[in-house]
Amino acid sequence: MPGSHRRRSAEADVIAPWPPDLPRVEAARGVVATSTLLTEPDVDALVLPVAPAAEGEDGVQPRSGTVDAAVRYGIDLAEIAERLGARGTAGEAHVLPLPRPIGGGADLPWSDLPSRVVLVGLGDGSPVALRRAGAAIARATRGLGRVVTTVGADAGAVGVRALVEGYLLGAYRHPRVTGRAPGPAAARSLVLLGRYAESAIDSARHVAAATWTARVLTVTPSSTKNPAWMADQAVALGTAAGLEVEVLGPEELLARGFGGLVAVGGGSDSGPRLVTVRYEPRHEGARSGALPRHVVLVGKGITYDTGGISIKPRESMVAMKTDMAGSAVALATVLGAAAAGVRHRVTALLPLAENAVGASSYRPGDVLRLYGGTTVEIANTDAEGRLVLADALAHADRDLDPDVLIDVATLTGAATLGLGRQHGALYSPDDRLAAALVQAGTESGERLWRMPLVEDYLPATSSTVADLRHVPSDPTIGGGSITAALFLREFVGRRRWAHLDVAGPARAAAASHEFPEGATGFGTRVLLRWLSQLR
Q1: How far is Cα 461 from Cα 468, in angstroms, rounded to an integer?
Q2: What is the pLDDT of residue 423?
Q3: Rama region for 533: left / alpha / beta (φ>0; ψ in -120 to 50; rest)
Q4: Of 42, 360, 511, 522, which is most buried with the most CB atoms under 10 A?
Q5: What would you report as the CA-atom Rg of the chain, rounded to the nearest whole angstrom?
Q6: Longest alpha-carbon distance in the chain
């Protein structure tokens, strides 16, 4: 198997180990008024929830544990919150350091209690607000040991899952290639004091672990991350998770007719790869045939995109190490599905190539024969993502027999122009599938907006010299994200199919709540949520 000779080195140098080393989150029964946990010497902070002022009232409103804490500390937290300017909005955090007694005495009421109180806003208490509150806790408590909180104690399983997701995602930091200290890490552990569902904590950990992995792979510099390296990572991570992994190299791709991958990767000295990662559920229901679903996820894996001969402007190339975000999401999702014991079969296909400029680069005007025999006229080598996706989608349709086929890609700037960076574009001719993905996006905090597959735009994919043209022949049509989706639809047969264009939300210009600056891992949470709900 091509790439297998690199397995030993990959296992010794895995950038994103599976599972990643997440901060510890645990639940403890008790209340602030009487808990002995708060007197333990390694507890550095108590995090308390506050909500916005009620109508007709001034000042933030106390929530679970806040009043008991004020009594136990012997201080007026309401007055302090007002002086700090706390408003109780979701994701707001204010740190109140408390002095320690001089000489080890116990002359202050809080002498045996944590020396920091953190007030965190709950907003309206919705899952979105709790996810933001969790991220705020992570930011406000960096560098500490144990942290105790009552935030979300009365939120139920859905709210607790959102809170812990937010905390773990907010605790993430991108790896750095530098000898300089990276700054304080997340607190060593977070203790949830009250009544919290352990199953919700476990679910949040699975989702956060997968998202961390997608982020780390996506931000790895392309000086390290070429198609061979990415394939090695998939082998190492998949093997660690007990999954079956197959890698096809340049010779096999050429022999089997993957014309899109071969052409796009032809200009680079690091040849293309096609990676398949398979998860098979092991429980009794799956073996008896009661759960026949097979989901195939295809992730665009352009490890660097110069635009090829249709070269990009310099400024547009800066973020192109992240043009393989779709493949990172597909790989992370199958790893997360296995860790969570999802009931359905999940296969991730990673078509990997570097779109470089070289003597063997494909050119505008070329006609490529993609997997399955469809010929495609090339008009712009910077529209390479749809070519590698088309190869993988056609392979999935012809050879893997999926019940549902989903691709995810940083595909078009047009999607970003239409939806900004807060929503992914969703295309599907299947109303039920589209509705389920939109719902999963809302619940997971990765929002999708369904876009139309406009049939009037289909002539834009027509060619006079081939079966299809991969970018519009008529520049007046516009709708670049739509025409890209229409092109991909030609390769999925009659399968239930959805296309996620995440060019906007896969990259963030600045950190916000649970999203870091740069690679966000967008798509991992929504796909795992959808898989957990699939019937």
Answers
A1: 5
A2: 97
A3: alpha
A4: 522
A5: 25
A6: 88
3-state SS class at 157: helix
pLDDT at residue 123, as a whole number:
96
| Interatomic CA distance for residues 460 and 254, integer angstroms | 29
Q: What is the pTM of this model?
A: 0.94
How do strand 61-62 and strand 189-193 relate by DSSP bridges?
Answer: unpaired
Which pLDDT value is given to residue 104? 54
> pLDDT over 70 for what percent of the chain?
93
Q: What gap in Å lies between CA 247 and CA 120, rounded to an integer?
A: 47
Looking at residue 1, what is its pLDDT? 37
Q: Is 386 part of the annotated catalytic residue set?
A: yes
Q: Cα separation of 235 and 305, whole Å?
A: 23
* Nearest partner of 523 among 497, 502, 504, judged by Cα: 502
Classify residue 202 as exposed, middle or buried by CB count within 10 Å of its CB (0-12, 13-18, 19+): middle
Residue 340 and residue 343: Cα distance in Å, rounded? 9
Q: Out of 312, 343, 450, 496, pick the active-site residue.
A: 312
Burial class (CB in 10 A: 0-12, 13-18, 19+), 292: exposed
Residue 187 gets the label, from left (phi > 0), alpha (psi -120 to 50) or beta, of: beta
Q: How confident is the model at residue 58 (pLDDT cuts 50, 70, 90)?
A: confident
Residue 29 designated active-site:
no
The per-residue pLDDT for range 488-521, each reduced to its tens digit, is 999 999 999 999 999 999 999 999 999 999 999 9
Dist CA 10 CA 345 (whole Å): 26
Task: Pick the catalytic residue from 345, 386, 421, 495.
Answer: 386
Strand residue runs (E) in 249-381: 273-279, 294-299, 301-305, 345-355, 367-369, 375-377
Give the model's confidence band at 16: pLDDT under 50 very low, under 70 low, under 90 confident, else very high.
confident
Look up tokens 């970018």; give the residue. Answer: 471
Question: What is the arithmetic mean of pLDDT over 24-33?
Answer: 96
The per-residue b/e assignment along 297-308, b for 16 or more CB within 10 angstroms, e otherwise, is bbbbbbbbbbbb
The pair of three-digit structure tokens given for residue 406, joined into one six-digit string: 């989903």
* pLDDT tens-digit series, residues 252-291: 999 999 999 999 999 999 999 999 999 999 865 444 445 5
Residue 4 has pLDDT above 70, yes or no: no
Q: Give the three-state DSSP class for 450.
A: strand
